[in-house]
Amino acid sequence: MYVPSTSDFNRQAVVYRMGDPSKPLAALTFDDGPDTKWTPQILDILAAKGVKATFFVLGQEVEKNPRIAARIVREGHTIASHGYSHVSLTQLSLPQMFSQLSKANSAISAATGVIPGLLRPVGGAYNQQVLKTVTQNGFNLILWSVDPQDWRGLSAGAILNNVLSNTRAGGIILLHSGEGPNLTGTVQALPQMVDQLQAQGLRLVTVPELLGLSA
Question: Which residues are in the NodB homology domain (predicted)?
């Protein structure tokens, strides 16, 4: 379990929704994995395109698929926390919240050797207690600026149009890579998404690089 330092207790809570709009950067992010169906396909596409992304993983899915989690890190992507299970932190007691954070970190660390410093709360839901707790546990809280709602099983065209229409410099794009929803559209849209965002002059980077944060 992460033991917060004095600097963590004194650190002001910050919620990040996007990066510096004056820099031609954007970040692809993937929630809810890793799984054995969608995540490997996404990793294959990112490798072929030479692009690094950020994966906000669930601790319980990392425990099921530690090799996929290790691959994320091995291939140069940033691995970050989405909690242990897919529950809203705002609905939990303080002990339950600490358990979510610490169990997720333990699972990620065991599989990858990395203790994540970035957290995306499920549903983007947070309140003052969540902010205080995640900050005391050493996390930066990361949301997004573009949400094509790919988890709804939308077509590749619908996902692509949404992303291209709404992504600007500094953008953080929310996509998914976990079991449950049909993410065929996500996988099919991703190669064109990368190509067309780059054609717009954006360089696709990890969230830490976009925001100038430690992973």
Answer: 24-205
Tokens linked to 100: 């979510």
Phi/psi of residue 190, nearest 5 degrees? -60, -45
CATH code (residue 38): 3.20.20.370
The answer to whether 37 and 10 have CB atoms below 8 angstroms apart is no
Catalytic residue positions? 31, 176
- Position 4 pLDDT exceeds 50: no
Q: How many CB atoms lie within 10 A of CB 81?
A: 27
Taking the CB of residue 109, how many other CB atoms lie within 10 A of it?
16
Q: Which pLDDT score is estimated for 2?
A: 30
Q: How many CB atoms sit inside 10 A of residue 152's CB?
A: 12
pLDDT of amino acid 111: 98
Contacts of 187 (CB under 8 A, 6+ apart): 38, 41, 42, 45
The residue segments making up the domain with residue 117 are: 9-210
